[in-house]
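User: quick one, sequence for these tokens?
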């Protein structure tokens, strides 16, 4: 009875210990959590903590995630599950840091439910599936009904996820409407157009004298204050945007310089040859090199970024069958050529530039430069002398003149640092200025520079739809992203790029590479065979069409069948080879997984048996000692 009582007491004690442990973990674990990840994936940046500390009222973070669609949907959707748990844990850190000012709600928007409708009405992105939609986004709202959102949590944007969430929370603060100082020629802002300007527009076929669509979009979201190139100061603006700077007066250059010295942010669109400019060929260039050179960026005159791999096809005639010519100065950037690690450009997939210049950086103390848009490694800078500028109207001549380069050409930079003034005392006197202002910017300042103006014109950035004119690419998005980033708080701009939450399995990746290398040569040979057979079939098809008498050549048909049979065989061998490669990789990965599954339990069993053996040995030694006594 005593033995049974002892065992019962031990069992009850173990159960009590387990229950107490669960209670402690459940109710106190949140405050005891420690981020042991290498890159502090679950630790909020200092900037986020500052913004959360300044929250003036309580807000609710509603995380919408379609659980059923995620578990039952295709493989590409099921992969979001891990990312959902990461976002959920990250939001709990926001809640913990903000104390009582943030509450988190997890919402499962089932198909055709009120929650699904609310998510869509709130502006979340709905991904269509076969029988439902997939939602994965965040709605931030307060008791007054004000809302902000992260429309969709894309794992590819994970390094910037903290910026996205904190930015949505920052929008909930009471912020006055931003005022943008805009300096641009009359043909862009449609201000100050005289009869000559209007007449020239009509002669060239551009009968509209309205401001560019991008300017209208700016006015919808911000207060826009137009500044003149002959102005004397830059005051009362939160951000300065300069488009196509030509003939800027010395006083205005000084005002821009001092605006930056006072910590003001700047966006510049300059161009070696602006198609939209109605001036003569030799007077369509613009630049702000006189200031930007001192801050680390120069755009060489008459140099154009060219790249055959990025060239956009343009039609050279009204013939509908005209396949067009690849214009090597009309470049299209996909996501691989757009900096996805920068807040300004992350998530963008399609940016086009037309006759863009090349930006060249040089070292300046205390200044860092991040490229936003750059060509492929075969991009080059094509020099066109002033007298040869009319050749730019001939796409064929431009394409024929293309020579591959040996490195990417940069079209856009973000420049950050404490800049030095470009004006010395003697320069100020020459410019007729009576006083010299700040010699260095009072804090870290940001400048975003683009080497193309046409990228935001009505014809490159927009397109006609049956109902309205819509955005054609991400050209406008990169401008608005830049504005939102630059006018945000210093805390928001300071947010770090987060490391990836899913680390690669280096051993598995190496196994995959080795296996692929073993069959890569054979796959390449078969793929070449397939291309050759397809080309021969196309040629034979053309031969049949050319027969004028309407009779079918039996020899050509037989040859078609023979080549078709060879094509099918080559494709079958290619599928078999790819299948064998996949099976081999899966077999090796399965072995590794099995090894990992067996190793951990085996080690635990070995340790347990070793401890048991040592305890038994120790007991026997104690018993022998007692017997001897």
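Assistant:
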């Amino acid at each position: 009875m005593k033995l049974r009582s002892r065992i019962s007491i031990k069992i009850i004690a173990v159960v009590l210990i387990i229950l107490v442990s669960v209670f402690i973990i459940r109710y106190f674990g949140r405050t005891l959590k420690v981020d042991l990840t290498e890159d502090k994936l679950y630790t909020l940046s200092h900037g986020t903590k500052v913004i959360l500390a300044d929250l003036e009222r309580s807000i609710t973070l509603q995380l919408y995630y379609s659980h059923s669609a995620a578990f039952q949907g295709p493989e590409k959707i099921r992969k979001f599950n891990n990312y959902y748990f990461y976002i959920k844990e990250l939001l709990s850190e926001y809640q913990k840091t903000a104390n009582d000012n943030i509450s988190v709600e997890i919402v499962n928007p089932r198909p055709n439910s009120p929650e699904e409708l609310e998510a869509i009405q709130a502006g979340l992105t709905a991904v269509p599936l076969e029988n439902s939609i997939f939602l994965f986004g965040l709605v931030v709202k307060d008791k007054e009904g004000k809302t902000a959102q992260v429309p969709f949590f894309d794992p590819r944007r994970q390094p910037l996820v903290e910026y996205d969430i904190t930015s949505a929370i920052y929008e909930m603060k009471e912020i006055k409407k931003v005022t943008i100082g805009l300096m641009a020629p009359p043909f862009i802002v449609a201000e100050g157009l005289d009869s000559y300007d209007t007449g020239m527009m009509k002669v060239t076929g551009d009968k509209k004298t309205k401001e560019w669509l991008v300017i209208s979009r700016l006015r919808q979201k911000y207060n826009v204050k137009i500044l003149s190139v002959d102005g004397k100061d830059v005051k009362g603006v939160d951000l300065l945007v300069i488009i196509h700077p030509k003939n800027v007066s010395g006083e205005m250059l000084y005002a821009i310089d001092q605006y930056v010295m006072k910590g003001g942010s700047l966006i510049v669109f300059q161009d070696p040859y602006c198609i939209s400019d109605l001036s003569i060929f030799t007077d369509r260039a613009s630049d702000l090199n006189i200031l930007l050179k001192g801050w680390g960026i120069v755009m060489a005159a008459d140099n154009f970024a060219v790249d055959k791999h990025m060239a956009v096809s343009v039609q050279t005639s009204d013939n509908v069958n005209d396949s067009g010519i690849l214009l090597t100065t009309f470049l299209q950037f996909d996501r691989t050529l757009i900096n996805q690690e920068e807040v300004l450009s992350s998530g963008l997939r399609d940016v086009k530039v037309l006759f863009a210049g090349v930006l060249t950086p040089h070292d300046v103390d205390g200044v860092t430069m991040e490229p936003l848009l750059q060509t492929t490694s075969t991009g080059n800078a094509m020099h066109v002398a002033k007298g040869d500028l009319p050749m730019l109207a001939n796409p064929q001549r431009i394409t024929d003149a293309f020579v591959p380069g040996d490195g990417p050409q940069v079209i856009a930079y973000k420049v950050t640092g404490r800049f030095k003034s470009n004006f010395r005392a003697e320069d100020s006197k020459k410019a007729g200025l009576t006083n010299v202002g700040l010699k260095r910017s009072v804090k870290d300042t940001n400048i975003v520079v683009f080497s193309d103006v046409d990228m935001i014109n009505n014809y490159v950035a927009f397109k006609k739809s049956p109902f309205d004119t819509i955005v054609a690419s991400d050209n406008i998005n990169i401008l608005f992203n830049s504005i939102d980033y630059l006018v945000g708080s210093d805390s928001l701009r300071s947010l770090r790029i987060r490391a990836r939450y899913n680390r690669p399995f280096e051993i598995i990746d190496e196994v995959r590479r080795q296996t692929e290398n073993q069959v890569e040569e054979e796959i390449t040979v078969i793929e070449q065979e397939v291309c050759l057979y397809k080309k021969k079939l196309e040629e034979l098809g053309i031969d049949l069409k050319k027969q004028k008498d309407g009779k079918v050549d039996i020899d050509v048909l037989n040859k078609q069948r023979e080549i078709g049979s060879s094509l099918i065989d080559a494709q079958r061998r290619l599928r078999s080879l790819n299948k064998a490669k996949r099976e081999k990789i899966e077999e090796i990965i399965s072995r590794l997984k099995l090894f990992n599954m067996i190793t951990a339990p085996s080690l635990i069993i070995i340790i347990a048996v070793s401890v048991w053996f040592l305890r038994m040995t120790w007991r026997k030694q104690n018993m022998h000692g007692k017997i001897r006594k």
